[in-house]
Structures are given as structure tokens and as C-alpha cells.
């Protein structure tokens, strides 16, 4: 079997994407973020990181599973491996989130504890001036059962109305759909000779749905949810990643590598795209920018970022050579587990730091003290470090072992 190059730059990239998504989902809770100019804005582009991860997935899977243009193993074997890699992580993230929410509900520590419930959801909409209270909803028994079924079958991304339980798990659902299409579509894409033209066509196809939704003023449901996580509508990112690898491989074969002015222009293009998108999304006031930036407009920058990251040479430091693949492999676990871990952190940090002698005599005193104790920046840094360490241990001691065990039984 052909020995595959390990792209250490992509290990860096996928680990950092996981960290960015975690910060995107958690930093806004801290009012201290407003003290640093533009920090809130620069950490508000979670969709850039998720889309880049989908592009990277198509790129890496093509590199790993294709020899020339031939899938190295049967499609059923590929699907089984991907299922065994995703499903145990998904179920643990789902169950742990429900357990943590129920714990927060039982402790009932303000501001989030009293209203905490696995039934609680927020309808997805991009409409302006809509009160958040009008969008909040507690699922009925039928809705709860339906969405539990969707979660257990990894179909939750197909619900366009709202996110349930552990919101970021929609990305695992969408990713698994991409895996199902991979053995069917990747060989056909790799046979395309005009790769740049094909990428351009996919780029235009990807932009078409948000343009149509904007033209028909579809700011509410279900259009926002469909564009945000609809697997079919997000598929162009994954397919573009496959084509990007095909182009990368062609360039490697002819020993082409961007250098000098060209390399500088490509890096500047990525940075300028991200900063411009940040300003348009957070400061311009045009609600149409969310749809365009989320679904397609940033795809060229994301493809360029993945392409250039693949060119980063392996580090010479031995400990980095050992740690980078481990950290890169932890990215999906960070995606899946940071929400329940942050629920725990934001519940127990104020509870612990506000301890007084009276707490041992009256639980309500503890609750009142915790409710009036703000989260700290120091605590947040500890949360980030602890989450990475726990996710690393969980990935290596649980996910890898369960995957091997399932493959041994099912293969």
C-alpha cells in the first residue's frame, strides 16, 4: 500500500479550528471580552472555522483513502470505519449534555440554572428586531421524541427549525452525510481534468441557494436552518475540498509550489477575506451578509487556507512531531464535548469560588452567592486548558479503543 505523507500543517489547522469553535461558543458569556477592541468581533466567525473544517475533511480523506483515483478499500469498509469513529463520540456527547443540563436544572443556580432543560430550544432565524423571548421554545413530548430519534440516528442536521440538546453536534451529523457520499462522488471528481474550472462551478452552485433566499426575503424559518446546516446545501464545501486535493496533488507532481510574491498574496488574501468578512458580519448591519458569508462567499479563502496549510513542513522538534498528530486527532472531540464541559464549568466555578461558612448550613446561601459571583478570565483560561487535556485523554482512551473494538466485532 502506498505510504501517505502526514500533513503536519493540517494537524495544526484542524486543532486550531476546534479551539476557535470552542471559543466562539463560550467567550461571549464573559462581559470582560468587551474591554479588548474587536475581540468579540474576531471571535464571532464560528461558521468560517466549521466550513474550513468541512473543506479540510474532504481534502484529508481524499489524501488518505485514494491511491491515484482509486479508493483503497471497499465503500462498506470506509463507511464502517467512519461510523465507528463518529458514533461513539456523538452518543457520549449527547448523553453527557443531557445529564449536565439536568444537573444544572437541579442545582438551579442563576442565571441559567432555573431555566435549564433538555426541552429548551431557540428557533433559527435571521430576521431583524425579533425578541429572543419569542424565539425561545420548550419542545412538546412529540417534539422531544422526534428529536431524540434524530439525534440517535445522527440525522439532527436535517431539522431546519432549531438545534437540540448539544447544538454543535449538527456538524457531526452533516459530516457523516458527507462520508456517505464520499465513495460515490470522490472518484468522479478526481477524474475531472479541469480542476480549477470545477472548483469555480462548485463555488457558484454553493452561492446560488443564499442568493435565492435573499432575493425572496427568506430571513426566517426554515431558510436560516437549511442554509446553516442542511447537509445537501453544505455539501459543496466537502466536494471543493476533494477537488482542492486533486489540484494540490497535480501541483506536487509537477513540483509547483507557491513562493515569494505569490505566496505572500495568497496569505494576504486569506487574512483580508477573514477581516473583511468579520466587519461585514458584525458591523455593516446588512443581514444578507450572514447568508452570503456563511454559504459560499468565503469558500475561496477557506480552500486557500487548507492548501497552504498542507505545504507547511513537519516540525523538527521531536515533541512537536509527537504531539501534533495527537492534538489534530482531538479536534472532533473538542467540537463534540466543549458544550457540556462549559455548562459544568459555568455552573461550578462561581459555586466553588463563592463558598462561605454559611454555605455548609444553608444551600440557598450557596445558590445566592454563586448567582452574584461573575465568571473570571483566569477561570476561562483554565477551562480552555482543561478541556483540551480532557478531550485528548478521552479521544485516546475511549474513542480510539471503542473504535477498534467495534471494528473488530463488525468488520
List the helices and strands and how they pair.
Blueprint: H1 8-26, H2 39-42, H3 46-65, E1 66-67, E2 70-71, H4 75-107, E3 120-122, H5 132-135, E4 136-138, H6 141-152, H7 170-190, H8 195-215, H9 223-229, H10 231-253, H11 260-282, H12 288-297, H13 299-310, H14 318-329, H15 331-353, H16 363-371, H17 377-410
Antiparallel strand pairs: 1-2, 3-4
Helix pairs in contact: 1-3, 1-13, 1-14, 1-15, 3-7, 3-10, 3-13, 4-7, 4-15, 4-17, 7-10, 8-10, 8-12, 10-13, 11-13, 15-16, 15-17
Could you explain the architecture of this structure?
Strand 1 and strand 2 (70-71) form a beta hairpin. The protein is 70% helix and 2% strand. By secondary structure, the chain is mainly alpha-helical. The mean pLDDT is 92. Helix 1 packs antiparallel against helix 3 (46-65), helix 1 crosses helix 13 (299-310) and helix 8 packs antiparallel against helix 12. The strands form two sheets. The protein has a two-stranded antiparallel ribbon with strand order 1-2. Strands 3-4 form a two-stranded antiparallel ribbon. The chain has 17 helices and four strands.
- Major sheet: arrangement of strands: 1-2
Catalogue the unreliable spans.
none
What's the number of structural domains? 1
Q: How does the major sheet shape up?
A: 2 strands, antiparallel
Amount of helix: 55-70%
- In DSSP terms, counting alpha (H) and pi (I) runs of 4 or more, how many helices? 17
Counted beta strands: 4
- Shape, principal axes of CA atoms: globular
Radius of gyration, whole Å: 22 Å
Per DSSP, what share of the residues sits in E-state strands of 2 or more residues? Answer: under 5%
Distance between the termini: 20 Å
The ordered H/E elements are HHHEEHEHEHHHHHHHHHHHH
Structural class: mainly alpha
Mean pLDDT: 92
Amino acid at each position: 500500500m502506498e505510504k501517505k505523507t502526514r500533513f503536519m500543517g493540517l494537524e495544526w489547522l484542524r486543532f486550531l479550528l476546534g479551539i476557535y469553535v470552542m471559543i466562539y461558543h463560550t467567550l461571549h458569556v464573559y462581559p470582560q471580552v468587551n474591554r479588548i477592541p474587536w475581540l468579540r468581533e474576531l471571535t464571532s466567525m464560528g461558521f468560517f472555522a466549521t466550513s474550513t473544517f468541512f473543506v479540510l475533511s474532504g481534502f484529508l480523506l481524499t489524501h488518505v483513502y485514494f491511491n491515484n483515483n482509486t479508493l483503497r478499500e471497499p465503500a462498506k469498509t470506509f463507511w464502517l470505519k467512519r461510523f465507528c469513529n463518529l458514533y461513539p463520540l456523538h452518543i457520549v456527547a449527547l448523553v453527557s449534555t443531557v445529564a449536565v443540563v439536568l444537573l444544572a436544572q437541579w442545582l438551579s443556580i442563576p442565571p441559567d440554572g432555573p431555566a435549564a432543560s433538555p426541552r429548551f430550544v431557540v428557533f433559527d432565524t435571521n430576521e431583524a428586531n425579533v425578541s429572543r423571548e419569542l424565539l425561545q421554545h420548550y419542545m412538546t413530548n412529540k417534539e422531544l421524541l422526534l428529536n431524540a430519534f434524530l439525534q440517535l440516528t445522527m440525522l439532527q442536521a436535517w431539522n431546519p427549525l432549531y438545534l437540540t440538546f448539544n447544538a454543535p453536534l449538527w456538524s457531526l451529523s452533516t459530516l457523516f452525510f458527507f462520508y456517505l457520499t464520499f465513495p460515490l462522488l470522490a472518484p468522479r471528481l478526481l477524474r475531472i481534468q479541469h480542476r480549477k474550472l470545477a472548483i469555480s462551478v462548485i463555488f457558484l452552485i454553493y452561492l446560488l441557494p443564499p442568493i435565492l433566499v435573499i432575493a425572496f426575503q427568506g430571513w426566517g424559518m426554515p431558510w436560516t436552518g437549511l442554509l446553516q446546516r442542511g447537509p445537501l446545501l453544505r455539501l459543496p464545501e466537502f466536494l471543493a475540498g476533494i477537488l482542492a486535493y486533486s489540484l494540490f496533488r497535480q501541483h506536487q507532481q509537477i513540483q509547483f509550489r507557491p513562493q515569494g510574491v505569490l505566496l505572500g498574496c495568497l496569505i494576504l488574501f486569506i487574512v483580508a477575506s477573514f477581516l473583511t468578512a468579520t466587519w461585514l458580519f458584525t458591523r455593516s448591519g446588512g443581514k444578507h451578509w450572514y447568508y452570503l458569508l456563511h454559504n459560499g462567499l468565503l469558500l475561496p479563502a477557506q480552500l486557500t487556507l487548507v492548501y497552504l496549510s498542507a505545504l507547511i513542513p513537519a516540525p523538527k522538534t521531536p515533541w512537536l512531531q509527537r504531539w501534533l498528530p495527537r492534538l489534530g486527532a482531538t479536534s472532533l472531540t473538542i467540537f463534540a464535548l466543549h458544550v457540556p464541559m462549559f455548562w459544568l464549568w459555568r455552573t461550578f466555578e462561581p459555586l466553588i469560588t463563592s463558598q462561605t461558612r454559611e454555605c455548609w448550613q444553608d444551600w440557598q446561601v450557596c445558590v445566592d452567592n454563586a448567582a452574584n459571583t461573575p465568571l473570571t478570565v483566569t477561570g476561562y483560561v483554565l477551562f480552555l486548558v482543561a478541556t483540551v487535556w480532557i478531550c485528548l485523554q478521552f479521544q485516546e482512551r475511549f474513542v480510539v479503543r471503542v473504535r477498534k473494538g467495534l471494528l473488530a466485532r463488525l468488520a
